[in-house]
Amino acid sequence: MSVAVRSQTAPVQGKFVNISAPANLAPTRKLSCIDLTDVKNTYTPPDVYTAIRACLAKGDYDRAAMLFPLAGAYAHFDAFRITDQTARDGGQILIMQTFAMMPPDQKQAFKQALTVVISDPKRHADFCSDVSKIGPPDYFPKYLIMHGMNAFLTPHPEQNALVPNFDAQGTWTKLQAEYLKCVN
């Protein structure tokens, strides 16, 4: 019997190696630096983080800052709808991977751009309007399911991976209000 494993560091003959399950936090598509209005609700957080990295590489901090909160909201949405609680830190791992190699001055430039999106009433209203048009996630969160311990422990981690009777619309409405601070 083969058992899938998620990414983890494990000692092997006195050394540490990284073992990873297929699709663990993996994007389904590699996006270029896109506008928030070009995002589709079928894009997973790893997909959106590829766009953020592309924007950061170009120095387009404003575009990256518009994408970042949506990627976080989608990751939170997915964490609420999966049954494997050990996988719920996937969004934080994606953030760490996105910014790990970024020099401090670029991190500061991104942080300033993000502050504008959050604090400028017009920019924030435009952001909220765009997010409302995009809508809640419409994909199977395999990237996150394969990040959890069930990827190690069960032969079919995707089975029964979603919370039964999950209130998608209620969760999305709550994330828009509380996480994104978008009030209608």
Structure description:
By secondary structure, the chain is mainly α. It has one domain. Helices cover 52% and strands 5% of the residues. The chain has eight helices and two strands; from the N terminus they run E-E-H-H-H-H-H-H-H-H. The chain has helices at residues 45-58, 61-81, 90-99, 104-119, 121-134, 142-145, 150-153, 168-179, and strands at 8-12, 15-19. Strands 1-2 form a two-stranded antiparallel ribbon.
Give the tags.
184 residues, mainly alpha, 52% helix, 5% strand
Question: Can you give me a brief rundown of this structure?
Answer:
This protein is mainly alpha-helical and 184 residues long.
| CA-atom Rg in angstroms | 17 Å
Q: Describe the sheet with the most strands.
A: 2 strands, antiparallel
Portion in strands: 5-15%
How far the N terminus sits from the C terminus, by CA atoms, comes to: 52 Å
Q: Which bin fits the share of residues in helices?
A: 40-55%
Low-confidence stretches: 1-8
Principal-axis shape? globular
Task: Report the average pLDDT across residues.
Answer: 88
What is the N-to-C order of secondary-structure elements (H for helix, E for strand)?
Answer: EEHHHHHHHH
Quaternary state, please?
single chain
Side-by-side strand order of the widest sheet: 1-2
